[in-house]
Amino acid sequence: MNTMRTGGRRTVLVAATALLVTLAALVSACSAPAEDDSSSSSATYTPLTIDHEYGSTTIDKRPERVVTLLTNWTDTLAALDIPITAEFKEQGYAGPNNTFEWTPEHTSEVKVVPSIAALDISELAAYKPDLILAGYLGDQKNYDRLSAVAPTIPVMQKGATTDTWEDVASTTGKIFGKESEADDLIKQTDAKIATFKSDHPNAVGKTFTFAQFQPTGQIGAINSTRDSAAGLLAQLGFVLNPRLAAEHKGSATRSPISPERVDLLDSDLLVAWSLGDDSVYQRVPGWDNLTAVSDDTVVYLTNDNAPAFGVPSAPSVDYVIGLLNPVAARL
Known about the structure:
By secondary structure, the protein is of the alpha/beta class. Helices cover 28% and strands 17% of the residues. The relative contact order is 0.16. Residues 1-41 have low confidence and may be disordered.
């Protein structure tokens, strides 16, 4: 039995390389006792309809066997002491020993699969879920496959690849009759964000760039705060690199950066994700001349912690603040 966290190739750059997002299998599914007899009884449960990118999903009774496919849902359920029957995770994107540092301790069964989009539906159905919390699914076909098994919640915000941590928390509270606890979680997280900004007044208003550096030499940088990682950094008081923001066209929130345009990465703060190969940085033309590199204000991410930014949850916000504190102090 083990505790864990989820990851997701659908994570930080969820749209630019199949859009992103671990290893062992854990045991012990659990359905913990309901808060009280009235909250667990389907007779007293008020049906709830959740609008999302593919329409809407109605939940007729309080879910007792929940399957999660993305870490923001897992984190939030764990933070609110809501039992999780099983978690499906993508291989290589779920932290060491299938555990992210920020996910609250909890118990569930973990199933590692090569790809969420191609998971074997029969494996998921074997858990007999009465709710699937999925997040980004890529297209309607994947949603239809899952919703045929049980009520499924994909991304709720139309046109987004990841929901905000606030929306995930508030929706979790509504589904499981824990609205007061969810509100408290949101308020506590908001207070931590406010403390970060008051502790680092010189960092507020400084520019940031969030970029992914692939082993192939390709670079992708976020160009819109509609992206979850950039949205979180903006909440913390930073301002998206204006030159990248000017690159935003249509719905794409990532811009490919050619070697000739590495100057587009120049900003006060650089959040860099190497996908596990840190040697890629020294192959970037002009890397040492970037402001954040010369000023030692780069936050280097790995597959083990990038989802804290890319698939944010209330618990991951606290972790992100911890990563940013020493860098913000130098700005």
